[in-house]
Amino acid sequence: MNSHTFASSGPLRGTISIPGDKSISHRALMFAGLAVGCSTITGLLEGEDVLATAAAMRAFGAQITRSTDGIWTVHGAGVGSLLAPRQALDMGNSGTSTRLLMGLVASHAITATFVGDASLSGRPMKRVIDPLSQMGASIEASAGGTLPLMLRGANPAVPITYRLPVASAQVKSAVLLAGLNTPGITRVIEPVPTRDHTERMLTGFGAKLEVGEENGERIIAVHGEADLKPMDVTVPGDPSSAAFFMVAATIVPGSDLTIRNVGLNPTRAGLLQVLRQMGADITEVDPREVGGEPVADLRVRHAALTGVDIDPAIAPSMIDEFPVLFVAAALAKGTTRATGLEELRVKESDRLAAMAAALTAAGARVDEHEDGLTIHGSGGEPLRGTGNARVQSLLDHRICMSMAVAGLVSQAGVEVDDIGPINTSFPTFQRLLDEATQ
Ligand code: S3P
User: Fold this and answer.
1) Whole-angstrom Cα distance, residue 362 to residue 120?
2) What's the whole-model pTM score?
3) Which among 381, 323, 324, 386 is positioned nearest to 354, based on CA atoms?
4) Most Cβ neighbours (<10 Å): which of 7, 11, 143, 286?
5) Superfamily holding 22-234
């Protein structure tokens, strides 16, 4: 365990560049690994989660190399031609790698075993086991439908139409990826829209994919036995990583920070909307497109925030940003109520319980409910914890970084028991924080 104390800081100033988007990086490696021919990926996030995906794609037969200038080259194995991995696939902490790759294996005539760390081994896999079983895969999971699990793919698999019972881009993507090597048309019905990187990028790689709408629900159809062609992907910066700096610069007085190259796909941009509703001062500079995704630089200046009731409908577009939004709410004037967030209990940690405990230890006033938190803000006053509270990060990178931001506005500092998990998604976090606050 590698503990660290984050202490109050001066303003965040200057310009920082955040690393590549994690969701897009996983997909770039997977789709390039399925294409026939040579793709390149620029701006790939080199965090542990994405490296787990790269290792798995190598085990499936893709050739993946990184050149000294940081560009990744992938010679794909081809849809339908994945090899059976010789060893168990170690997914580490990464739910995205696990669920999407389970989809890939499900329609190939191979068997793969998935293992992960203590956090991942507690997370529900039934949500992907159900549709993939309907497609013909057979899956032996640990009790409770968790990792370690063994998945035997079906070939040919059976195309299905699957209505998502939970708003999850991972489940949607698992079914669509299984559909790539399934004869006929595989459909996913999405009652609530979730991040659409799979749809955008698969189209770029030449898959035949149709997105329509019926009775207010999105329907995504993928035509099977696809031939993917290689492409050069540029990965935009991760809005979920930018989030920590958006909140930090907003709540630390005197800050004026520019965050370059932030992905602003509408299915990911909920935090920006909510922070603005609370009174944040964030301007989008030079809006443009990178890798088929909308991107801008964000100029964030300190602002006094006011508590709000967060519309549960916005949750999917900021699902990973709630931990750091709770920190912003702890500094706002008045009360913030967030509801409809049951999904936060099955992320890398139970993020409602983890953030309620961590913020309370740091001196914030928080009530925990079944499906959300109510936070009574300090009105801009520093958090006054006892000073000897140790925050449990529970193998959850976003708890670590959110509480690092809380530390910047605390009187006595915030000690996080283990900051190792930050490397899963944002290995340059500490360096950028030092740069911005020096
Ligand atoms: C992701 C989808 C979300 C998100 C995760 C990444 C993806 O998970 O929380 O960090 O890349 O598809 P769910 O699909 O479980 O909501």
Assistant:
1) 27
2) 0.98
3) 323
4) 11
5) Enolpyruvate transferase domain (3.65.10.10)
- Per-residue pLDDT in tens (0 to 9) along the chain, 438 residues: 899 999 999 999 999 999 999 999 999 999 999 999 999 999 999 999 999 999 999 999 999 999 999 999 999 999 999 999 999 999 999 999 999 999 999 999 999 999 999 999 999 999 999 999 999 999 999 999 999 999 999 999 999 999 999 999 999 999 999 999 999 999 999 999 999 999 999 999 999 999 999 999 999 999 999 999 999 999 999 999 999 999 999 999 999 999 999 999 999 999 999 999 999 999 999 999 999 999 999 999 999 999 999 999 999 999 999 999 999 999 999 999 999 999 999 999 999 999 999 999 999 999 999 999 999 999 999 999 877 678 999 999 999 999 999 999 999 999 999 999 999 999 999 999 999 999
- Write down the CATH superfamily of domain 4-20+236-436: Enolpyruvate transferase domain (3.65.10.10)
Peptide bond into 253 cis (omega under 30): no
Residues having CB within 6 Å of any atom of ligand 1: 23, 96, 168-170, 173, 195, 319-320
How far, in Å, from the CA of 421 to the mean position of ligand 1? 17
Are 4-20+236-436 and 22-234 equal in CATH topology? yes
Compute, in angstroms, the gap from residue 254 CA to the centroid of ligand 1: 34
Where are the chain's structural domains?
4-20+236-436, 22-234
**Phi/psi at 256 (5° precision):** -155, 95
**Ligand 1: which atom is nearest the Cα of residue 347?**
9
The DSSP H or E segment spanning 32 is: helix 22-34
